[in-house]
Design goal:
The protein is α+β, with helices and mostly antiparallel strands. It is built from 10 helices and 11 strands. The longest helix is centred in the C-terminal third of the chain and has 30 residues. The N terminus is likely disordered.
Length: 338
C-alpha cells in the first residue's frame, strides 16, 4: 500500500464562493480532510465521536475517488454522484476513526519526518506565491494548521501501515500453497491464436449479392495467400475485412477451441503456424483464417504466475484487514450523518 499523505484536490465553483478562482492554481494533491472546523471551513456533514467532518472534506474525497472531474466541468456526473458520495463519506469517517485510534495509542510523528513531509508538500507548488495563495485559501494563512493536517495524515498512514500493510504480506510459500490447492484455476484449454479476414453479407442479401460476396472472398483469399507474415496479413485485414477484428489487424489472440465453429477447427488442425486457410463458410459469412499458434491445453507454471498471484492474494488480505479494522473501530464509535 502506498502511504496516502495526500488526496487529490480539485477546487471548483461552490467549494468556497469567492475563493474558487484559486482552483486553477492549486496543486493536484491535498492533505486528508481533518475534523478541525475553522471559520468558513464548510458545512458539517458527519460527527465521529464528536469530531466534525465537513462538506469540504467530503468533496475533496469525492474528487479523490473521481479524479476526472476536470473533464466534467469540475463536477461528478449526476448518475454517479450518489455512489461516489456514499463511498467518500465512508472513507472520511474511516480515516477519522483511524486518526482517533492513533491518538488513543499515543502514536507520534518524529520531527524530522514531519519536516520532510512539509517540504515535500511545498514542492508541489510551482512558486512560493502559489503556495501562499493555497495556504491563505485552505488554512487562512496558517502554516501551523497545515502542519497539523500533515501530522494527522502521517499518523493515519503509520497506523494503516502497521495494521494493514505489514500484516497483508504474502510469502512465496503461501502463494505456492494456494497454487497447489487450486490447480483448475491455472489450467488453460487447447486454443488457437488466429487472425481473420471476413466477408459478411448485407442484411437480407439477394442471390446476386451473395454471388458478389463469393467473388470478394476469392479475391481476398488470393491476396491473403500472398502475405508472408503477421504484419502483412494484418494490414490486409485492416483494408478489406468486414468483421470488427479488422481494427486489430484481424487478431483474435488465443481462442478456446470450444468457442470455434467445427469447420474452423478442422481447417486449423490442418495448418502449420503462419499458414492461411481456404475460404471457410460460417453461416452466411466467408472467413479466411491465418494460424499464428496452436496452443495445447496445459497448466501455467507457478514461476510464471507467482508475482501476479502474490499481488492478488495480498490485495485480498489487505481488503479483509481493512474491513475488519473498520468494523472494530466502528463498533464502539458514535457516528452521526448530518
Amino acid at each position: 500500500m502506498k502511504l496516502r499523505l495526500c488526496i487529490p484536490l480539485l477546487l471548483v465553483a461552490g467549494l468556497a464562493t469567492a475563493s474558487a478562482q484559486v482552483a486553477s492554481h492549486a496543486p493536484t494533491r491535498m492533505l486528508r480532510p481533518s475534523s478541525t472546523t475553522a471559520p468558513d471551513a464548510g458545512k458539517p456533514v458527519a460527527r465521529v465521536n464528536g469530531a466534525v467532518l465537513t462538506d469540504h472534506d467530503l468533496l475533496r474525497e469525492m474528487y479523490a475517488i473521481f479524479p476526472y472531474a476536470r473533464q466534467h466541468n469540475g463536477g461528478v456526473p449526476k448518475e454517479m454522484e450518489p455512489e461516489i458520495r456514499s463511498g467518500a463519506m465512508q472513507m472520511i469517517i474511516f480515516e477519522e476513526l483511524v486518526y482517533q485510534d492513533a491518538l488513543r495509542r499515543g502514536m507520534t510523528v518524529p520531527a524530522a519526518k514531519l519536516q520532510k513531509a512539509e517540504e515535500d508538500f511545498r514542492r508541489q507548488f510551482p512558486t512560493p506565491e502559489k503556495y501562499q495563495e493555497f495556504l491563505n485559501f485552505e488554512f487562512h494563512g496558517s502554516a501551523k494548521l497545515l502542519r497539523e493536517k500533515i501530522r494527522r495524515s502521517l499518523l493515519i498512514d503509520t497506523l494503516l501501515l502497521r495494521e494493514i500493510e505489514d500484516k497483508s504480506a504474502v510469502s512465496p510459500a503461501e502463494a505456492k500453497a494456494y497454487y497447489d490447492a487450486n490447480p483448475a484455476r491455472f489450467e488453460y484449454p487447447e486454443s488457437f491464436a488466429i487472425q481473420t479476414i471476413s466477408v459478411l453479407p448485407p442484411q437480407n442479401a439477394t442471390p446476386a449479392q451473395l454471388k458478389e460476396m463469393r467473388k470478394r472472398a476469392e479475391d481476398a483469399l488470393r491476396q491473403a495467400q500472398a502475405t508472408r507474415n503477421y504484419e502483412q496479413f494484418g494490414v490486409l485485414a485492416e483494408k478489406i475485412s468486414d468483421d470488427d477484428y479488422r481494427v486489430m489487424m484481424g487478431d483474435h489472440h488465443a481462442v478456446d477451441r470450444a468457442k470455434l465453429a467445427p469447420q474452423v477447427v478442422q481447417a486449423l488442425l490442418a495448418l502449420r503456424a503462419g499458414q492461411v486457410s481456404g475460404i471457410l463458410q460460417v453461416d452466411q459469412a466467408y472467413t479466411i483464417v491465418r494460424l499464428n499458434q496452436h496452443i495445447a491445453a496445459g497448466k501455467r507454471k507457478f514461476a510464471d504466475v507467482q508475482t501476479q498471484l502474490r499481488k492478488e492474494l495480498q490485495d485480498k488480505k489487505r481488503n479483509q484487514l481493512r474491513a475488519a479494522l473498520g468494523r472494530k473501530l466502528r463498533d464502539k464509535a458514535k457516528i452521526e450523518i448530518l
